[in-house]
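User: Batch of two.

Assistant: Item 1 of 2:
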Amino acid sequence: MKKVFAVSLMVFAFSAMGQDVIKLRSLSTADGLSQNSVNQILQDSRGYIWLATQDGLNRYNGYEFEIFRPDDEDSFSLADNFIIQILEDDQYRLWLSTRAGIHVFDIENRRFHKLIDTIPGRIMQKYHLRKHDGFLYWKNTDTVNSISRMPMNVSLTKANNPLQEYSEQIHVAQEYIYQYVVGDSGLIVLSKANILIPGYGVLSLETDMDGIGAQSWDYQLVGDSVLLLPGVDKIISINELKGKIKSVNTGFSAMCFVPANEDYWVGTKAGLYSYNVHTEKTSKVITNPAFQNTTIHDLTKDSFGQYWMGTANKGVFIYDPKWAQFQYLNSSGHIVWGYAEQGVYAYQATQNGIYVMDTVTQTVVRHLLKGQKVTAIYVDSLGTLWVGTADGEIYSQAYNQTKFEAYTKVLNQPSSITGFRLDRQGNFWIASHADLVMISPGDVVYSIEELSNSFMYVMDLFEDSGGNIWVGLQDGVGYVKPTGQYVHIGYTKGDPKSTNFSFNSTVLEDSKGTIWVGTYGGGISRLNADSTFTHFTEKNGLSNNVIHAMEIDDQDRLWMVSNGGLSMFNTNSQTFKNYSNSNGLRNQDFALGGSYRFTDGRLGFGTVDGLLVFDPYEVDTLFSQPILKWERLLINYDRVLDLSLDGLEQLELHYSDRVFSLGFAALKYDDPHDVTYKYTLEGFDEEWVDVSPQSRIVTYSSLPFGSYELKVKACSGKGLFQPITKTLGIVVHPPFWLTWWFVLLMILTGLGLGTGLVYYLSRRKLKQRLEELETREKIQQERERISRDLHDSVGTHFAYIISRLDYLYLGWEGAHVTDKKAYLGKLSDFARSGMKMLRETIWALNEEQVSATSLKLKIDDYLKLCFAEQRTTYKFQFTSVEIKVNATIALNTFRVIQEAVSNALKHAEASHLDISLNIGVKELVLSIIDNGKGFDVDVVGEQEGHYGLQNLKKRADELNAEFSLISDGAGTKILITSKITHT
C-alpha cells in the first residue's frame, strides 16, 4: 500500500500553467461539416441545428451532419450549394436564399422547391430575406426602389411559380435602397442617406452613415429602437418613436449580434465582442489565442443556452455559459493541495509554497514559502492559519499577523502533513503519514499509539457530531473517542463491516449523523447503524471509484472529485450526477484531500490548474432535458420520404415489408456524448437492448404478424437529466389470406362448400331416388298406356267378338242367325282385323311421326269395321293440312276415338255418332257426339272398374289437351282440344 500511495503522489507532482481562457467547442470539416465557411445558423422549432455553408445545407443532431447539395439526378434538390440565409415558417419549412434565388425546403418530404428570383442570376446578400406577420420580404441587390413580399403559407404543389404568382411589390420613394428591417410597426427602409419609418416619415441619416458601404449586416429590435450593424466600425441606434439616430464607434467591424443577458454579443471580423446598450461600451469576450482574428458570420443561441458562432474558414465555435459556473482561482500554474481564508485574504497551498490572494480583486498579493510543497492548510476558529509541508514542517500565523511561527518536535518523526483540526474541546489535532497527534489546551502533546510510527498514512481528519475524531487511513478508517480510546475499522475484502477499499481518502458526516467515507478505489461507503457499510460505486452511476476529496452541502448532497471528474451524490435518492470536461471542467486532475467549503456555500477542490470553485445549487440545475426524436425510417432498405417522423405514433407494416430500420437521437448539444440509449420491442424482445450513441438505430426483420410497442430510452450517463422514453406502436399486418376476416371467410366458405357438398350428395341421392321413382312411375305409366292401348285395340275387338259369339250362342237354335257359317266367317275376319290392329298399335308405338292422312285412313278403317254389322250409324268428318304429328298424339287420338265408339256401342246403345277431327298447324280438335242414353259422370267417375272414362282422361292428359265430357239423357258429348307439334 505504501507503493500505491507513492504512485498517487507522483500523479499530482506535475504542474500546469493556468490560463484565463473561455472554454470553446468547435465543429469543422473534420467532424463532418461540409465546409468551414458558415454563413448562418438556425435552430428550428423541432430542435435541429441547420447551418448554411458555402458548400451545401447541413443539419446537425449533436452526433453527425446530414448534408444537402445540388444533385443533377434529383429535380427536387438544391439548385446551388452556396447557402446564404435560412428562415423557418410555421409549417416547419425552411426558406433559403442562395446564389440561384430562393428555395423552400419541405423537410417532411425532403424536397427543395426552387422559386425563381425577380432578377435571376443576381447574388443575394445575407439578410436579404425577412419575415413578418406571415409574409416573406425580399429585395434584389439591384438598385431599385422596390421591395417584394409574398405570404409564406403558399402551396408548393402548383406547377407555376408561387413567388411570381403571389408576390407583390412595395414601392418606396427613395433611391439606392440597400437595407430594410421588418419590425413590430412594419417595414423600415434604409438608404445611404435616409431612413423611412412607418408613421413618422423620412429621416436623414446625415453624417452618421458616413463611410457605410452598400450593405448592412444585421439588425436587432431593442424596445423602441433598432440597432443596426452597417459592416463598419460603428453601431447605429435608431429610435423609431423619437426619430433619433445615433452611431457608436466600436473599433471593430460588426457583422451580427445576439442578446446575451443585458448585453449583446457581437460577431465581428476580429472575434467576439460584447455591447451594452445602456452604457454603449464594448469589450472583447473571448481572448483565446486560437480565436483571435476570427471572422464571425453569424451568432445563434440554442434552446440549451449555448452560443453558436459561424465563422469564415474556421467552422463553428460553441460556447456554453454554463461552463462559467465552474470558476478557477488561479495559482500560477501549480497544483493546489489546499485552500483557506483568513480575513480579506485567501491562501492557496500549492506545489510551490503559498499564494496569498486578495478575495475582492482575486489577484495574488504575496507568495510565501516559495519552493516548499505545502500539503495542508487550515484556519481554526481563533483565526489562526496553520500550514503543513511534505517535509513534516508545521507553521502557524495568528490573525492579522504577517509572520509564520514554526513548530518543532511535535511529530514523532518527520512525514508529510495531511491535515489539521481544532475540536470542540479545544484540542488541536495534526495528521501526517506517520502520526496522529493531539495537542491539548495546555500544550501537552499526545500521540495515538495505534497510528504513530505505523505508516497507516492518515489522510483526513474529521470531527463528527459526537466529538469523535475520524481519520481516513491506508487500512480502513478509525476514530478517536472523546475519552481518548481509539477504534479501528480495518479493511477486509468482502467484509460487510469494512469500507469498499483499503485506502480511504476522506470522511464526512451528514445532518442525520451518518458517516460517509470516500475511498481511493472503491467509490464511497456509508456506515450503517448495525456497523455494516453500504457501498456506492461506478455500478451505481459514479463516474470513477478513485475519490480524491469530498465535501457535503446544506442538502446532504455529497460532492466528490475523482479520476472521472466531479460527481454529486444525492443521499436521499441515492443517485449520482457527474460532470466532466464536456460540462465545463478544464481538467480532471485533482489533488488528494484538497477540498474547501466556503462560508457562502460554495465548494472548492484543488486541481492542477488552480482551485475549482462552484455553487452546488447552480451547477446542479445547469442541464435541461434533451429532445428525443425519430430520425430516418427505412423499409426494405428504402428511405420513407412521405412520412412525418416528428409526429409518428404508429407504424403500419405489411407482410411484404420484411425489414425496417428506425433511427433516433436525443438532441442535446451541450453534451451529446453523455446520452446513453437502449430499446426494447415489447411483444418480441424479452429485455432492453443497449445501443451505442454512434449507432442509434433499431432494425427488425421478419417480425411475426401482430402488434408491438417499440420503446427507446435515452439516459444520462452522468445522471444530469431524467431518463426520457419515446414510444412507437408497430403493427405488422398479415397478407389478406392470413387475416381473420379471410380465415373466417374461408371457414364459412368451407362450411358452405361442405354444406353444399352434403346438400349436393343428398340431392343427388334424392334425385337418384326420384329418378328411380320416376322410372317406376314411367314404367307404371307405360304399363298403363300399353294396357290402355291393348284395351282400346285388342280389348274392344275381343269385346265385340265376345258379344257376337254370345249373340250366336243365344240365337243358335232360333232364327236370329240364319247363316251361321257366314256369321262365323265374319267373326273370324273381325278377329284377324283385331290382330292387325294389335300389330298396328305396336307399329304406332315404334313410329316417331305419323302423317295426318295416315291417321285418317286408320280411323276410317276402324269405323267401317266397327259399324259394319251395326244398326248404329255414324258420320266421320275429317279436316287437316298435310302435316305430320307426333306418333303419341296420333295414337292417343286414335285411342280416344276407339274408347268413345266402344262405350257408345256397348253402353250407351246409341243409334248415331258424329265424329269430327280437325288437325291444324298448331291445334288438334276432336269432337265425338252420340245420341245414347247417357250416364251420370260423377257417379261413374267414382266407381271402380270403369276404365273407359279414366282412359279417356289419361289420354287427354297425355295429349296435354283440354278435356270436356257432357252426358245426359240426350246423349254424350266429348270434346278434346290439344296443342300439337309437327314437322
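Item 2 of 2:
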Amino acid sequence: MRLAWVRVRLRSARGAALATFALVLATAFLAAALPRAVDRYEDRALRQTVLAGQFPDRGVALTEDYDARQGLGGTSPLDPSGIGSVQTAVRSLLAGAAPLAPGAAVYGARTAKESGVPDQGLPLTSSHLPTADLVAQADVGAHARLLSGRLPHAPRSSAQDASAPVVEAAVTERTAQVLHLKVGRTLHPQGLSPTPLTVRITGIVAPRDPAAAYWNEDGDMLGPVVNEQPAGVGEAPHTYWHFTLLTDPAAAVLLPRLGAGVTLYWYEPMAVGRLTAHGVPALRGTLDSLSGGPLAARLQDTVGAPVDIGDGLATVLGEFVRERDATAPLVLVAAVGVGTTALAVLLMAGGLAEERRRAEIVLLRARGGSLRAVTGRLAAETAAAAVPGGVVGALLAVVLLPTGRWLLPVLLAALATAVVVVALPVRAGFAVRRPRPGGREDVATARPSRRRLVVELTVVVLTVGAVAALRQRGGGSGTDPFLAAAPVLVAIAAALVLLRLYPVPLRLLARPAARLSGAVTHLGLARAGRSSTGGQLPLLAVLVALTVTSFGGSVLAGISQGRDRAAAATVGADARLDAATSTLSPRLPGAVRKVPGVGLTTTARVEQNSADATFSESYAVVLVDPASYDKLTRAVGLPSFRSGALSGHRGTGADEVLPAVLSPGLAEQVGQGTVSLSTGLGSTDIRAAGVLPTTPAAPGGEFVLVSAASVAALHPVAGADTLEEPTTLLAMAAPGRHIDAAALRKVAAMDTSSVSVLLRSQERAALADTPLQRGARNLYLAAVAAGAGYSALALLLSLLQAAPGRATVVARLRTMGMTRRQARRLVLLETLPQVLLAAVGGVLVGLAAVPLLGPGIDLRALTFGTGPRDFTPVDFGLGLRANPWALALPSAGLLILACAVLLAQTWLSGRRRESTELRAGDRV
C-alpha cells in the first residue's frame, strides 16, 4: 500500500521530487567533499613541505659510529651481510607506518673524517690539500653505468694482512673530469694511522638516475665539492676540493686502517607521493619510538649497539603539524558555519513542504489515518527522492576528489540525507498530532512560549560560554568544535535577539503610517507584522552565513595587515638603500628622487656601536633630519616621535644636552638623567625625549635617534661634513604610484659607492601563504561561497513559501483598483523588513564579532607561519580587522536578490488573470 502511495505521489508531484533530489544531491556532495578536500590540500601541502627540505630530510636516516660498538660472535660489524641485515630490520620496523620508496634504500660505511690526498697532479684551489672520503655503499652496480674500466672488486684476503693494502675504487664522471683522474691512477689518502691505504681507480661511472636517493644521501656523491677550512682571525679562508671514492662493500673492513673512524649509515627515503596528512601521527610516533622507545630497543637488540636516528624528517613533520594546527580552526569555523546554514535550509525545505501539504495531511488524519501511518508514508515518499540524491552526491565526491579515506565523507552525506528524509514527517507529525483550531501566528502579536524562552536562554548561555572560552583559551591551537562554533553561536544568539526585537519597530511604524492618506504603506507594514512566526530559519541561515563570511574577511584582513606592517617595519619605507661600505655618495639622493614613482625621501646616518660604558648592549646611533624623517615615519605607518621632540636643547656650549628618542631597552637605562653618547663627530650628552618600539632607519635592534644638525653644531671640526654623510636612504612612493624597482636598482648599481637595495614589496612577497595556508584559505572561501548560496536559497524558499498568499492578496487588491506600481510597492513593504533585518543584522553581528572574538584569535601562525623568522620587534597589530567588503557585499547582494525576486513575482502575477490567482487556493 505504501509503495503504491509513493508511486502515485512521485507521478503527481514530479517537480517537488526533482527539487528534493537536487537539494539532497548538492548537500550530500558538499558534506562528503569537505573532509576529502581537506585531506587533499593537506596531503599536497605535506608533500610540498617534505620536497622543499634537504634531501636527507625526506627519509629516515640512521647512523652508528663503528668505534663505539663491539662485534657479535666474531663477525665484523663492517661485513656487508651485517650492514644489510640492519637495513632489513630497519625497513621492517618502518613498514607499518612509513610509506617507504621501494628499492631505494641506501646503506653502507664511510670514513668518519675526510682524509688528505697529497698525490701530485690533483688541482688545488688554495694551499690546502684535496680531501677524500672512502665510501663502501651497497649496489653501486645497480645505480651506475660503467663508462670506462671496471667496477671495484672486493679485496683479497691476503691484502687485508698486508702492511699497505690496496683498495679498488670507482669515481663518478664529474669527479674524474674536475680532478683529472683516470683508470689505473693510484691515490694515497692520509689518515691518523701511520700506515696509509693505497686506492687504485679501476673505473669511471655515471649515475643512472642523478636524482635518486643513492646519489643524494650525501652531498659529495655526485661529484667533488669545494669545502672551506675555518680561518683564524684576520686570515683568509682556505678552500679545497673534496671528493668521494666508491669502493666495494666488502672493502669496508679496511676503512678503519686510516685511523679516522668509520660511520655506518642506513637511509630509507619516503615515497613522498604516498605521504598522507592523516598518517603523520603514526609516522611521528614511529620516529619517536626509533629515537628512544620500544623500536629503538628492538633495533639495538638486532644491531648489538645503539643507533642514532636523524631528526630531519621529524622536524619537517613537526613544522607541518604545527602549521596545520594553526590553520585547522579557520577551516573548522567554515565547516560549522556552512553546516549550520545547510541544516537550516534543509529544515526549511521540510517546513515548506509541510505548509504546502498541510490541508492534505489534516484530511488524512480526519479520515482515520494514524500518526504513524501518515508520517511513514511521508518519510517513504521523501526517501524515494532524497536517498538517490544522497547516493549520487556521495559518489560524485568520492570520484571527483580521490583520497584514501571515505568513512567520514559517507557518514556526513548520509546525515544530510537523513535530515531531509525526517524533516517533513517530523514537522507534519507535530503539526497534526492533535486536533487544534486554526489561528494566526503573526510575528507582531504572537506570545513566545516558555519552552521557546528556555531554548533561547540555553543558546545565550552556550554563546557566552563559547566566547569566554575562546577569549581565555584562544582558538589558535587544536580543533575544539565548541570554540570553532563561537561565531555561529553568536549569529544564532543575534538571530534570536533580532526576532524578539523585530515586532517593536513594526508597531512603532504602523501607527504613523495609519494616518497617511494612502493605504499602501499602512497595509504593507501591517502585512509585514502578520507574517508567520515560522520565519526564524531563513533569518538564522542568513545571519550564520553573513557572520561566517565577515569572520573570514576579518581574519584575512588581519593577516594582510600584519604582513604589511611586518614588511614596513623590516624595510622602514617603500624602498631602502644602504651603503655596504663607508657612506652614500652625495649625488645618490638626487638621482633616487628622479626615479619614476619616488615621492618622499629622507637620509640617515646609522652608526653601529657595541656595548660600552653607557649602554650594556649593542645599539645604533641614528643621525637624522627630524622634519623629513618624521614625515616618512608617519607615511610608512610606523610609530613616530612627537613633533619637536628632537629640537629642544639644554645648557650652553660644550655642556649642551641634546634630546634623543630611544628604543625601550635603552630608555630604561637612561631614565630621567643624562648620558654621554659616542658618535662619529665626538661625545655628546643626551637625555630621553621619547621612546619608540622601532624606527625605519634601524629596524630590529636598539637605537638612539638624534638630530644630525644639532650634533654637527656641537662639533664644528674639520671633516665634519664627511662624517655627516648618510649611510641609509629611505624612499616612499608618490601617492597613487609605485616605485620603478628596475630603475631604482639601476641607479644604485651605477653609483660610485656599493649600495644594497631592499623593497617593501619584495619583503611583502616573501610573506606569501604557505601551501597549507593557501589550501586552508581556498577551502574557507569555497565554504563561504557555499554558505552564501545556501543563505540565498533560504531567502528564496521563504519568498516562495509566501508567494501564493501574496499573489492572491495582490489580485484581490487589483480588482479594487490598485495599480501595478502600488502592487510592487506593497510587495516590497511587506517582505523587505525581514530581509533588511537579516542584512543589517549580519553587518552588526560581523562588526560585533571583531571585539568579541578578536582577543581569542591568534593570527601569528597564520600570518607568518610556524617556522623561525627574524622580524623587527614591533606590534604588528595582529588581530581581527573588520573588512568592509566582506560586511557590505553579501548583505547588499541579499537585498538586491530579494528585490529582484519580488519584482519578478509581481510581474508574473500581473501577466496572469486575477481570476486565476483568486482560485489558486481552491486546488489541493
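Confidence is low (pLDDT under 50) at residues 68-74.
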